[in-house]
Amino acid sequence: xxxxxxxxxxxxxxxxxxxxxxxxxxxxxxxxxxxxxxxxxxxxxxxxxxxxxxxxxxxxxxxxxxxxxxxxxxxxxxxxxxxxxxxxxxxxxxxxxxxx
Length: 100
What we know:
With 100 residues, the protein is an alpha+beta fold.
């Protein structure tokens, strides 16, 4: 499938993307992600591997759109507010003796 990422044309094939990501350890997912095989990768990490471009040169949406068209399952960025609620952390407020 032909797609444009960061103003460059790429001919992507699902099996070639899977092969490129074999043996690549997934980074921590903080934004949009994609499932390739049994692993979930940040979209920007996959884009960097398959295009050999710096991840600052393209958007996550460009890569997610291309990977979705190839048949991969893409996931939206996790909700930032839900993470702290799940961890049970609450904001710490200064006590009455705190001075500003």
